[in-house]
Amino acid sequence: MTIWLVTIGEPIPHPNNNLRLHRTGLLAKYISENSSHKLIWWTSDFNHFTKTHIFKKDYSYEVNKNYKLVVLHGCGYKKNISINRIIDHKQISKKFISLSSKEIKPDIIITSFPTLDLTTASIKLGRFYNVPVLIDYRDMWPEVFVNLAPNFLKQLIKLLLYPLFYKTSKAFVNSSGIISITNNFLKIALKKINRNISKNDASFPLAYLKNQFTNKELEESVLFWNNFKIKRDDLKIAFVGTIGYQFDLDTIIDAVNILNHQGIYNFQIFLCGSGDKLDQLVQKSTNNNIIFPGYINAAQIHSLLNNVDLGLCPYNTNESFMNSIPGKAIEYFSAGLPILTTLKEGELGKLLTEENIGYFYSYKDPNSLAFTIKNLITDKINLKKSKENILNLFQTNYEANAIYKNYLSHIEKVVINNER
After folding, report:
1. Which range marks the domain in which residue 93 is found?
2. How many CB atoms are closer than 10 A to CB 371?
3. pTM of the model
């Protein structure tokens, strides 16, 4: 069987990439190393996180004997929300269609949504080859643009984006099945097209593969963190992700200012990553309790998470995040960290409450966050007590190999059913 994966915006397996693999990368790794199936991952040479091109041209190479990466070159973009990003995605999807005939015919195509352009192209090629196409639904798009707009503009934005909503629904209707990251997310996808669940639909949670680095990289990461003077006795909170608009990061800075005004300084918050809001937040932050290490690699993430007390999930409380167990939370679980988050009423909040491994504050309420941090400083000694339970939760429910074994089994069943 030959499987095509179609995903851009994720780290790829390449010597120049020292980021951890995400969902498609982990799925590709598992399939190629644990089956005889042939695999092609169609992706972009643009590193979404560093905003740089890897090859600066179309390129392909074999990761292993079962696994080929076809990397397509587009114009790239400097900001996540921009015209250039739209142009880049259209360029990649056109190249995908034009170059597809040069590769081995697939038995199935799994395309990540978003992007709409590549999903639409995958549906088109699925029809041409007469093979099933599964949409891996991860993000509520284009609803995200409506969620970012102020309330008085939401209906207008939704009306202006009607063509995108229509094209999304059309793509979902024409797919062979939908994969999603939670059962609730799958329900949302099926609601878009007003149909019941079918045998080709399924949900597989986001997963995490530990130790995606070499010993040398780990040694170098320890030296890296020595530059930031991590204080052993202080409460330490880490956020690792994109410094962008999907997170409520201003509230963190405002909460720290409140605590400092009260004479409370025995804590550190690490806001790690790059993104559209980084410069603005650095300028806004005027104290030493918030540390901006910038873009960090897999080994540096591992070292940090093993030296802090909590993982921070400061999400905007929109429908997409409320119905998800974000990959960020799962990454924190892999280090045995309890979580501090805004998502108390969502799927993540329910899980944290059931397992007694979470702490909550109100979205866009710095006083609420300051109050929670103050209590955590007092109760710091008890944070370590839940580590073993969190590690067991991770191993049982979110370890990558177990998740992607089930994902592959589902892919195989869809192909067999299509051949009957």
Report:
1. 2-209+399-419
2. 16
3. 0.89
